[in-house]
């Protein structure tokens, strides 16, 4: 079968290759992938500027859904033909304190699809039934494939962050996660929503405005601090959500947040910090990290998709066959698409 494989440690070391079809073992399910979202992390690995461990060679892709093609011995609860979305934790130990407490996203032995385990930019993927979720009948595969980034935002802004209706919320970075965070923050009752971007984000800022942002601002052309100080009581944002993947964005977060405010950091950033964190102390700011998600979040995210409370219409800029992966990647890199989706099988 064809698969999109990262094969080396240089910029652009990604190509379509023929790989063996996997077979499900006992307690496993074989999925036929129908659609898979292109994540910003896929672009980072393509460009060789990621900051997390991966294996090589590696089949990319971790945002995906499909149908059950085969069930292994001992599997119950799923049958061939079931439409399912799949979580990213391909393997966990099941025995550590994090697994036993339901926080398996933090298992030190976790192997994530498209990083330390082969991913979903291919026709077939083997999965544990414990991480499969039935897709509501009214949710198409192209939308269900994006359950994962919705869950990233949900985990950050619902499970991890103390947020109140009426809060002034600033979202740094209108990429896929930033746009999902915008929608979750709106559902949580944010009073004023501000989304910040750069020159490359012009289209994405327009999408943010369409999806409910009260203010959008290009930080390369206008002063975000002046905007935030002009809103509310002038002390700053109740919550700043860093979705940029750039370490220096935290310096801006500290300028924008109010005393006793909160910063939630979702975006990865490989660059070392070269600025003081004293404002974190002086303002008594809470800095919260957020990583991945767990089973209940997936159920809620699929429910929000089914009821139309998450709008993916403006988010998906194009659906591409696997053979056109380069255009799908380039369209996101250029900022033309908030999100590209690969259609893997018909």
From TrEMBL:
Coiled coil: none annotated. SUPFAM superfamilies: GroES-like, NAD(P)-binding Rossmann-fold domains. Its cofactor is Zn(2+). Keywords: Metal-binding, Oxidoreductase, Zinc. InterPro entries: ADH-like_C, ADH-like_N, ADH_Zn_CS, ER, GroES-like_sf, NAD(P)-bd_dom_sf, Zn_alcohol_dh. Residues 12-342 form the Enoyl reductase (ER) domain. PROSITE patterns: ADH_ZINC (PS00059). One of its GO terms (molecular function) is oxidoreductase activity. Belongs to the zinc-containing alcohol dehydrogenase family. PANTHER family: L-THREONINE 3-DEHYDROGENASE. This is Zinc-binding dehydrogenase. It comes from Litorilinea aerophila.
């Amino acid at each position: 079968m064809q698969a999109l494989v990262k094969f080396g440690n240089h910029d652009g070391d990604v190509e379509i290759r023929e790989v063996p079809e996997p077979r499900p073992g006992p307690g496993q399910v074989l999925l036929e992938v129908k659609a898979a979202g292109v994540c910003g992390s896929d672009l980072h690995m393509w460009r060789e500027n990621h900051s997390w461990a991966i294996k090589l060679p590696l089949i990319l892709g971790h945002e995906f859904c499909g149908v059950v093609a085969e069930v292994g011995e001992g599997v119950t609860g799923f049958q061939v033909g079931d439409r399912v979305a799949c979580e990213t934790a391909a393997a966990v130990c099941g025995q550590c304190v994090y697994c036993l407490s339901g926080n398996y996203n933090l298992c030190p032995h976790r192997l994530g699809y498209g990083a330390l385990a082969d991913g979903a930019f291919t026709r077939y993927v083997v999965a544990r039934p414990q991480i499969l979720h039935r897709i509501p009948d009214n949710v198409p595969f192209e939308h269900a494939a994006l359950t994962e980034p919705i869950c990233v935002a949900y985990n950050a802004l619902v499970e991890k962050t103390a947020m109140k209706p009426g809060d002034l919320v600033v979202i740094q970075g209108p990429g896929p996660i930033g746009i999902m965070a915008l929608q979750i923050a709106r559902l949580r009752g944010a009073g004023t929503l501000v989304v910040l971007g750069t020159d490359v984000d012009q289209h994405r800022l327009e999408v943010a405005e369409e999806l409910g942002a009260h203010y959008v601002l290009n930080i390369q052309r206008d002063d975000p601090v002046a905007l935030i100080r002009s809103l509310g009581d002038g002390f700053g944002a109740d919550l700043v959500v860093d979705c940029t993947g750039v370490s220096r964005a935290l310096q801006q977060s500290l300028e924008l947040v109010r005393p006793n405010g909160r910063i939630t950091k979702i975006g990865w950033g490989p660059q070392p910090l070269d600025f003081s964190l004293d404002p974190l102390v002086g303002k008594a700011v809470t800095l919260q990290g957020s990583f991945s998600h767990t089973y209940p979040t997936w159920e809620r995210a699929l429910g929000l998709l089914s009821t139309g409370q998450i709008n993916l219409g403006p988010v998906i800029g194009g659906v591409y066959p696997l053979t056109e992966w380069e255009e799908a990647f380039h369209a996101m890199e250029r900022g033309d698409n908030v999100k590209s989706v690969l259609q893997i099988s018909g």
